[in-house]
# Entry
Amino acid sequence: MLRTRLAPTPSGYLHLGNALSFVVTWAIARAREGQILLRIDDLDAGRRRPEYLEDIFRTIEWLDIDFDEGPEGPDDFLAQYSQQLRLPQYHEALRQLKEQGHLYACTCSRKEIRQLSTNGNYPGTCLKQGKDFDAPRTAWRVKVGPTREVTIPGWKRGIESIDLGREMGDFVVRQKNRAPAYQIASLVDDEHWKINFIVRGLDLLPSTGAQLYLADLLGYEQFTQATFWHHDLITGEDGQKLSKSAGADALKTWREAGKTPGDIFQIAADWLGVTEGSIRTSAELLAAVKDQNL
Ligand SMILES: [Zn+2]
# Structure
């Protein structure tokens, strides 16, 4: 059974890109009789705000889509689903990686890395220095090396391959403030919830490579079998990142102006390649996706 998730971050009001990602994920899952989890990523609790949490639920309602598992509202989220409640699981994964010898401790400053790096990646300064993992202001990095191919099973785009060494190098898995990195939290949660279909923007292709690499080291059975769809990013007509006027503003502004989400479904239909006729609602999108047997 297909299991996927909507994974917004409550550190700002949602925008068009979030809505498109929700809508295409929802339509594919419903067309295949899969299950949808709402997974709110509040790893950075300092940036979480109640109005952003509320906005996630209002947006889902406004789009007229639904999910099968996850919080019923902001209070239920904070009581049962916050990533802050799952920190022990993330630290357990870090402990496992460390014990297996996949990590090393790094005390380099950003400035030092900038000065020594030839390609923007970490130059590996601390790799062979055996620094103390538990010293203050110490980041933990995973050994990737300068070149490492990772294969990504892709939906629609087929199998893709990236060079994780070139894209990310020895990336950080635990930050200097001891917080687990996004790559760890996202992966541990996806494995926990048995997610096997992940929709995300093309900008996250290196992240997917990083997470598949970690999943392999951790022996995760679900994530290593998952399929990914890295969709195009929304750009303006000139191919540039969207300006405010072109639709990068918050969906909240659209809702408050009484706009319906019709345009969002039309773009989503385009992305999915189901462009026969006008598609302006979640029901119409779902019907079109079912028709095409995507
Ligand atoms: Zn270092």
Notes: The first strand starts at residue 3 and ends at 6. The beta strands are 3-6, 35-38, 103-106, 139-142, 149-152, 160-163, 172-174, 197-201, 227-231.
